[in-house]
Specification:
The complex is a heterodimer of chains A (375) and B (119). Chain A has 375 residues and is an alpha+beta fold. Chain A is built from eight helices and 19 strands. Among the domains of chain A are: 132 residues, Gyrase A, domain 2; 80 residues, Elongation Factor Tu (Ef-tu), domain 3 (Beta Barrel). In chain B, the strands form two sheets. A six-stranded antiparallel β-sheet of chain B has the order 1-2-3-9-8-5. The chains are: A alpha+beta (375), B alpha+beta (119).
Chain lengths: 375, 119
């Protein structure tokens, strides 16, 4: 595993007995001795700690000193209302391309005099280059490389974090805060990628191991690897960039129009003005040719990514699975994928081709397991 | 008991060969969530893919270790695939087969050789 990067928690992962795998250029823990299934269930029952330090943390500072300039500039790359994002608030966003496809999905936070972005590990070099190229005249684009990122997720996350940091209990879903602690500043948001209540916590790299050890010392908190992270996000109906969304899928096909606020839609105060707006706004009006859907296979066999989807008594595929796994909380297999729009209604019976056989599956609304955010 | 390089174990019981996977294999697979077994009465040739094991990580195949006929499969695995992790050498046997030539088992490793094989 040469040339792979390591996070500040690498030694701790090894000490905890993690199995390490290459992921987006990093050596990351895919599971700990507890095992994927138990890690998953523990996160839903108590709390799980994830090392997500491989993700990109980026600061966007307006050269003028006026945050509205940075917000307006970023709005030329994303179909979100950034100008209307309040101080101390975060929102889900995606960069689009001229064809209406998705270049990456990310979180954007308003931190008063600047914006803070968290982007996918595999896309951070791309995203930083894009922003420097397109926003460089208006903003200083600063990639943060000296901080770790932890996610603490699950019903006990608040109790666990509150032991170390005051004020987190008052935060609502998608609130962000910069908090002073001994040893430096931590950046907390109440958000995550599991469907559970929880926090994402950026800490100075030098503090990361101590912070992780302190949280893991609590009985409620167990370390969770990438294996369980994938099934947790899939149960929550959340997209994985590069699998469920990419440059060839539009936000409308992907069912992500909820993330496009009114100001940027047709008739809005700042309608359009982002890459691919023609196609995206047209699809919002007329409907897309295909849609991202959830699937519940009958029986226990998972339908994994790449499984072709068919209508009943037909040999012409109508879609394909983009993510599939066994859902430990769901107690059965689940998949996410794209099907032609006429097959996308919940309740529709379709067939997935597994090892040469057409096996039945039902189109299902997502999330597969209910979200438990603290609104 | 004999062992294959595919991490299957074989033991003879009432003239039938009982087949499962080793503890080492079940650890590598991770939590097993689904096992697809062949139909009883199926005639198989050595190296036919006859069992599919789906774990939380991926799908893997189990090959027929010998020529013969599947005479019994372990139906308990349909409802309790986790047995493959809990008791791979016992309760989680996959199938019993009637083989054409029991001496064909001799080509496989004994326990000491298998332990050496997995290092």
């Amino acid at each position: 595993m040469t040339d792979l990067l390591r996070t500040a928690l690498y030694d701790l992962h090894e000490e905890l007995g993690a199995r390490m795998v290459p992921f987006a250029g990093y050596e990351m823990p895919v599971q700990y001795p507890m095992g994927v299934m138990q890690e998953h269930l523990h996160c839903r029952a108590a709390a799980g700690l994830f090392d997500v330090s491989h993700m990109g943390q980026v600061l966007l500072r307006p050269r003028s000193g006026d945050l509205a300039d940075a917000a307006r500039a970023l709005e030329t790359l994303v179909p979100m209302d950034i100008l209307g994002l309040g101080a101390g608030r975060q929102r889900y966003a995606f960069f689009t391309n001229d064809a209406g496809g998705i270049l990456d999905d990310l979180m954007v936070a308003n931190r008063g005099d600047h914006l803070f972005l968290v982007v996918n590990a595999a896309r951070k070099a791309h995203d930083v280059a894009l922003m420097r190229d397109r926003l460089g005249e208006v903003c200083v684009v600063e990639e943060v490389t000296d901080r770790a990122l932890l996610a603490l997720q699950g019903p006990k996350a608040e109790t666990a974090l509150a032991l170390f940091v005051d004020d987190v209990a008052e935060m609502r879903f998608m609130d962000v805060a910069v908090l002073e602690v001994s040893g430096g500043e931590i950046w907390v948001s109440r958000s995550g990628y599991t469907g559970e209540d929880g926090f994402e916590i950026s800490v100075p790299g030098a503090m990361a191991e101590e912070a992780a050890r302190a949280l893991l010392a609590m009985e409620e908190v167990a370390p969770i690897g990438l294996g369980a992270r994938d099934a947790l996000r899939l149960e929550a109906g959340l997209c994985l960039y590069g699998s469920d969304i990419d440059e060839t899928t539009t936000p409308v096909e992907a069912g992500l129009t909820w993330a496009i606020q009114k100001a940027r839609r047709a008739g809005g105060a700042r309608a359009g003005g982002f890459p691919g707006a023609d196609r995206i706004l047209r699809e919002m009006k007329e409907g897309p040719a295909r849609r991202r859907v959830g699937l519940r296979p009958e029986g226990r066999a998972p339908m994994r990514a790449g499984t072709r989807i068919f209508a009943e008594n037909s040999d012409l595929p109508v879609g394909e699975v983009t993510s599939g796994a066994f859902g430990p909380t769901l107690g059965g297999p689940m998949s996410m994928g794209y099907v032609a729009a006429q097959f996308a209604a919940p309740g529709t019976l379709v067939f997935g081709e597994v090892r040469g056989k057409h096996l039945p599956a039902t189109i299902t609304e997502m999330p597969f397991t209910p979200a438990r955010f603290k609104r | 008991m004999k062992f294959t390089e595919e991490h299957e174990w074989l033991r003879v019981e009432d003239d039938l060969v009982v087949v499962g996977i080793t503890a080492h294999a079940s650890e590598q697979l991770g939590d097993v969530v689904f096992v697809e077994l062949p139909d009883e009465g199926t005639t198989v040739s050595k190296d036919d893919e006859i069992v599919v094991i789906e774990s939380v990580k991926a799908a893997s195949d189990i090959l027929a270790p010998l020529d013969g006929e599947i005479v019994e499969v372990n139906e308990a695995l349909a409802d309790a695939p986790g047995l493959v992790n809990e008791d791979p050498l016992g309760a989680a046997w996959f199938f019993k087969m009637k083989v054409d030539d029991l001496s064909a088992m001799d080509e496989y490793m004994d326990e000491a050789a298998y332990k050496k094989f997995i290092g």
